[in-house]
User: Fold Isobutyryl-CoA dehydrogenase, mitochondrial from Macaca mulatta.
Amino acid sequence: LPGGLRALVQTGHRSLSSCIDPSLGLNEEQKEFQKVAFDFAAREMAPNMAEWDQKELFPVDVMRKAAQLGFGGVYVQTDVGGSGLSRLDTSVIFEALATGCTSTTAYMSIHNMCAWMIDSFGNEEQRHKFCPPLCTMEKFASYCLTEPGSGSDAASLLTSAKKQGDHYILNGSKAFISGGGESDIYVVMCRTGGPGPKGISCVVVEKGTPGLSFGKKEKKVGWNSQPTRAVIFEDCAVPLANRIGDEGQGFLIAVKGLNGGRINIASCSLGAAHASVILTRDHLKVRKQFGEPLASNQYLQFMLADMATRLVAARLMIRNAAVALQEERKEAVALCSMAKLFATDECFAICNQALQMHGGYGYLKDYAVQQYMRDSRVHQILEGSNEVMRMLISRSLLQE
Assistant:
């Protein structure tokens, strides 16, 4: 195992000091599935995360094992194979799993978001067709919103879907799609009407559909256990029966999916930061300089204290936003945006500081802190960049 990670894997969440214990405030049921997630992360993910990263492996078998524990459709309804858990429950699970491999857990969070969108906005036939194999991860899902020319301005997307008989004919492309080329189900936002958000609809495109193809596999700084490719549509015929919701409802579906997605991806950042704090604490105890353990240096003690404080603050913000979203409170969108902004910024800072406090060892791929840092960096960009989060928060404030 990478240096310093062995102790974390062997002890899991039990190695944590009580002040940063992620089980604080949870009920007994939540503590139980949190333990299941931590144990799975330690047993199945952490021992493999470096290899998955270096060889760019998509760990299908391990994710299917996670699905057997209910992690393939965490907040999908139980009648189609989901676990039927809350947004808070989901955050707790993804935080724990991300300590084992942040990149893989982040993909699983996107897959879960896609399954939830179909479950929440699809008709009964669609729910029972698509959700069960997604919940078991027999099939994998990707979310297709971003385009080469529309990232933050998602409402300006150009991928067209024109009716022809009982099909839509899709033309266009999507960029930076996690799972692209490997996933079986693509939840695609496309333009069925005029310009702006009201002209956008949501359709499910299945792998193997004629006219669906993929770009080259992107080489990334992190997130290497999941492939990223462009998804390309060239006269791609998709049955009208695969439209999720009504025509023109796609942008609403996309935004509602992203509100939860932001909590999920922030929770993945929590897991990376959580592991980094523990690895740093243990490194300071064993590494000696000038005849003393680094842990005896007050400056480093204070840095570790700041990291722990940021971690707990981020966790509380995320859990508060998760409850607000579950209860459909009017301030939920702003709180999800705040949680994503604060947690992904602060947790990346924690991971980056952890690398610094490991000194030269932190820059070696034999040490896990560098991977947590690389895998969490992109969380400040995707699911709506943090600049967009600031815009959403300020808009909420100014409209009051």
Residues 45 and 100 are 5 Å apart (CA to CA). The beta strands are 141-144, 160-164, 167-178, 185-191, 200-206, 212-214, 228-239, 243-244, 288-289, 292-293. Confidence is low (pLDDT under 50) at residues 9-16.
